[in-house]
Write a structure and sequence with these properties.
alpha/beta; Rossmann fold; 2 domains; six-stranded parallel sheet; 10 helices; about 45% helix; about 10% strand; EC 5.4.2.6
């Protein structure tokens, strides 16, 4: 193992953003809850079963592209909606409309609350750069660049594969490995020489499916065993642990 806590033959680090680099997972969970609870309340009345910002978020939407998250959660409740189109207004009850409402809420919350990067993750990315490892961000968020800029860490990464890039290149989102594979390709590093850093179960599955050289599970939601079951080679609470530091 290197001083970065990685196998010696790893030449690139592929980082998820929300929950790994930035403290935005809670913002996303809150936006999903507001979106789904409003929809369910209108559909089912005051006795509706609310969206659980922990269990439902982790199981059905975390790490997925927005529309996939909408479909996944609604399917868990036996609900099917028309797909709609990408420019559907946020108050339209379609898959795309609900996704657009969630996105508008996230942008509002980020503007109100700002974005904070995890200090341990920043130190790790800086150490990876100093060690000469290639670095990419792989996120399903269409707002990835704005979040990285707001957090002041966009200069740490050479490649960004986000929701916009995935749409342009017709890449399926996590748990499919395609976005991570695209990042490794753009860095010029084969998958078995790249490490994936993820906090979502869908991201663990993507790392395993892509046959990456090493998969690091970041345990932000008290799900260490689940991260291991879904593909993590090692699980840490903070990336600083891989440097031998306290978070």
């Amino acid at each position: 193992m290197t001083t970065l806590g990685l196998p010696d033959d790893i030449h690139a680090c592929l980082f998820d953003m929300d929950g790994v680099l930035t403290r935005t997972a809670t913002v996303h969970a809150a936006a999903w809850k507001e979106t789904f609870d409003d929809f369910l309340r209108r559909r089912e009345g005051p006795d509706f079963r609310p969206f659980d910002a922990h269990d439902d978020y982790d199981r059905y939407v975390d790490g997925m592209p927005r529309a996939d998250g909408v479909r996944s959660f609604l399917a868990s409740r036996g609900i099917e909606l028309p797909e709609g189109s990408g420019d559907d207004p946020p108050d339209r009850d379609t898959v795309q409309g609900l996704g657009n409402r969630k996105n508008a809420l996230v942008l509002r919350k980020i503007e109100e609350m700002g974005v904070e990067a995890f200090p341990g993750s920043v130190r790790y990315a800086e150490a990876a750069r100093a060690a000469g490892l290639r670095r990419a961000v792989v996120s399903s968020s269409a707002n990835c660049h704005a979040v990285l800029v707001a957090a002041g860490i966009d200069d740490l990464f050479e490649v960004r594969i986000d929701g916009l890039a995935a749409a342009e290149r017709h890449l399926p989102g996590k748990p499919h490995p395609d976005t991570f594979l695209a990042a490794a390709h753009d860095l010029g590093v084969p998958p078995d020489r790249a490490a994936v850093f993820e906090d979502a179960l869908a991201g663990m599955e993507a790392g395993r499916a892509g046959k990456f050289g090493f998969v690091v599970g970041v345990n932000r939601a008290d799900q260490e065993e689940a991260l291991r079951r879904h593909g993590a080679d090692v699980v840490v609470d903070d990336l600083a642990e891989l440097l031998g530091e306290a978070p």
